[in-house]
Specification:
Length: about 270
């Protein structure tokens, strides 16, 4: 009997310890939620999301609107919300898109994996997208990019002064409109995985300026090929970069992104 009781205690402890937590940090505010706490909320919805990383093989999620999750959290007007995943992915998300109340715009949700009913494994990966996954309904309405769907989320951090946090990623104030547009594309599509001049939280890909900028060692056509379809240029077992189709990144946006990279090659700042 003692052995049975001890085994049950061990099993219950293992189950409890397996429950993941989500952290939200905004200045002096710090909120921590467990999976059961979030799943027990009254604002949990069951939503259909055909455009997630699972595509149509798994579409039903229990989720909370992101705007509800951040109710009572101080998010300054010019702040961005940094979403950090356990695998080193770190996306900086625009407040206006994340908390939009426009019924015609895309709507952001935090999908919560139920520990008792795990989600399927992601293709070619050994784990699911859980425990927490940022998903969108009607993503085309606001042009939500692939880097704005972070999964395996561990925390959200409100950056009230992003330029103060990441000063070395900014182009010169008098840079051309193409460079400024390219900078916005970099923030949306690249900054989640790459750093610039050592600034940033993403750790999946290499720094895009140190020690060399890709525009310094790749011909223009090769750089375009790398961004559009990385496997067409080079591939290896641990390669994780996905390509950006014209639907995700238009030719003009891609040209502006390369203009930004070229501009930053003249603004190297050592860590």
């Amino acid at each position: 009997m003692r052995w049975v009781v001890a085994s049950l205690v061990l099993i219950s402890t293992q189950v409890f310890s397996a429950e993941a937590t989500l952290e939200i940090v905004a200045g002096q505010q710090r909120l921590v939620f467990s999976q059961p706490q979030l799943l027990a909320r009254g604002d949990v919805e069951t939503i259909s999301v055909p455009d997630s990383e699972y595509r149509r093989r798994f579409t039903r999620f229990k989720a909370i609107p992101i705007a509800h999750l951040f109710a009572g959290v101080d998010v300054p007007e010019l702040a961005v919300v940094q979403c950090n995943a356990s695998d080193g992915f770190s996306a900086n998300l625009e407040k206006s898109r994340l908390f939009s109340t426009d019924p015609k715009a895309s709507k952001a949700y935090l999908a919560i994996e139920d520990p008792k009913r795990p989600w399927p494994r992601l293709s070619e990966k050994t784990a699911s997208a859980g425990p927490f996954y940022l998903v969108w309904t009607n993503p085309d309405a606001s042009g939500i990019g692939s880097e704005e769907w972070p999964y395996r989320i561990a925390s959200f951090r409100v950056l009230s002064d992003p330029k103060g946090v990441f000063p070395k990623i900014y182009p010169a104030a008098d840079a051309s409109p193409a460079v400024q547009n390219g900078f916005r594309s970099f923030q949306k599509n690249c900054f989640a995985c790459h750093t610039m001049n050592g600034n940033g939280a993403g750790s999946i890909g290499p720094d895009l300026n140190l020690p060399m900028n890709p525009t310094e060692y790749l011909q223009a056509a090769a750089l375009v090929a790398l961004i559009r379809d990385p496997a067409s240029l080079r591939t290896w077992p641990q390669r994780r970069m996905r390509g950006f189709s014209e639907a995700a990144l238009s030719d003009s946006e891609l040209a502006d992104l390369i203009a930004y990279l070229q501009h930053m090659s003249t603004r190297k700042v050592l860590p």
